[in-house]
Amino acid sequence: MRKPIIAGNWKMYKTVGEATAMLKELCRMPLPETVEVVVCPVFTALYPAQAALAGSKIKLGAQNVHWEEKGAFTGEISAVMLRDAGCEYVIVGHSERRQYFAETDESVNKKTKAALAAGLKPIVCVGETLAQRETGDTEKVIVRQVKDGLTGLTPQQAAGLVIAYEPVWAIGTGKTASAADAAQGCSLIRRTVAELFGSEAASQLRIQYGGSVKPENIAELMAEADIDGALVGGASLEAGSFSKIICYQ
Ligand code: 13P
Predict the structure, then answer these.
(1) Cα-flanking dihedrals φ and ψ of residue 93, to 5°?
(2) What is the β-pairing status of strands 229-232 and 206-210?
(3) What is the pLDDT of residue 175?
(4) Strand ranges (DSSP E) for 76-169?
(5) Ligand 1, closest atom to CA 170?
(6) What is the DSSP string of 62-92?
(7) Given CB 3.0 to 4.6 Å as the disulfide criterion, which of 89, 118, 179, 207 pairs with 79?
(8) Ligand 1 midpoint to CA 89 (Å)
(9) What average pLDDT values come out for the chain (249 residues) when binned by 10 residues?
């Protein structure tokens, strides 16, 4: 059985004080043991967030990582450093990074490998833009992003991944993909991973849906067989709405 995983991607929001205050509030709420919960604050809030989460089961993740372990790469941060700050997860290849920071499938692949080598669990993001959807390229884009992003991984590494299907047109727009569309994307990802790494790896792989997930639509999404969780943006910024998403059952 795959354990559901709900992760909050806080993007470029929250100072250290705001982040720790919200996490303390979240820690006081009763959350189900059956769901794995991850929060991904900005870099400056990671270490204080670790302290705020001490004694709780909520895991820490970062939003980006560089593929080198160390060196002259001004402004970057390595997987080893993220581990050092208390991270267990890292988001790789978010569409905002692909769109605004020229991230490619090749860099996603390098980052994924570096994260795994350092013992971090990557949450690899894939998903089509509105233009790609309108030209009928959705499947082609998803398959390419999965294949090229995961090139060179072992079946065991693939099995331990989280892949987030985030259709770009559904991010921050309030326009959630229908549960059927979301499920179709997630099933395609699982089939692609099965082709590349075998059916056992594919059956262990956890797949999240992301894009305007809210307390109102989470249950319907989670009812789909191939959706194992959610990567939540806006609605993860407040303890009230995030906890409602976590307690979807
Ligand atoms: P929203 O939930 O704000 O649409 O953001 C989704 C997202 O990008 C999560 O990574």
Answers:
(1) 75, 30
(2) parallel
(3) 81
(4) 89-92, 121-126, 162-165
(5) 4
(6) ES--BSSSSSS-TT--BHHHHHHTT-SEEEE
(7) 118
(8) 17
(9) 97 98 97 97 98 97 98 98 98 97 98 98 97 96 98 98 96 87 97 98 98 97 98 98 97
Ligand 1 pocket test, pick from 90, 166, 169 with the greatest ligand atom count within 8 Å of Cβ, gives 166
Query: In the structure encoding, which two tokens stand for residue 111, read together?
Result: 């980052």
Q: What is the pTM of this model?
A: 0.97
* CA–CA separation, 76 and 55 (whole Å): 30
User: Which secondary-structure segment (H or E) carries 162?
Assistant: strand 162-165
The CB of 234 under 6 Å from ligand 1? The reply is yes
- Copy the structure tokens of residue 12: 């470029």
Domain extent, residue 168, equals: 5-246
Is ligand 1 within 6 A of the CB of residue 9? yes
The residue assigned the tokens 């998803």 is 142
Q: Which residues are catalytic?
A: 94, 166
CATH assignment at residue 83: 3.20.20.70
* Residue 20 structure tokens: 């720790």
Say what the pLDDT of residue 119 is.
98
Pocket test for ligand 1, best of 213, 216, 221, 237 (most atoms within 8 A of CB): 213
Which residue, by CA, sits nearest to atom 7 of ligand 1? 233
Q: Quick check: 189 and 143 in contact, CB under 8 A?
A: no
Give the span between the Cα atoms of 247 and 103, in whole angstroms. 34
- Ligand 1, atom nearest to 164 Cα: 10
Residue 178 has, within 13 A of its CA and on its CB side, a CA count of: 3
Q: In this structure, which residue's CA is closest to atom 1 in ligand 1?
A: 233
pLDDT at 174: 81
Based on the structure, what is the number of domains in the chain? 1
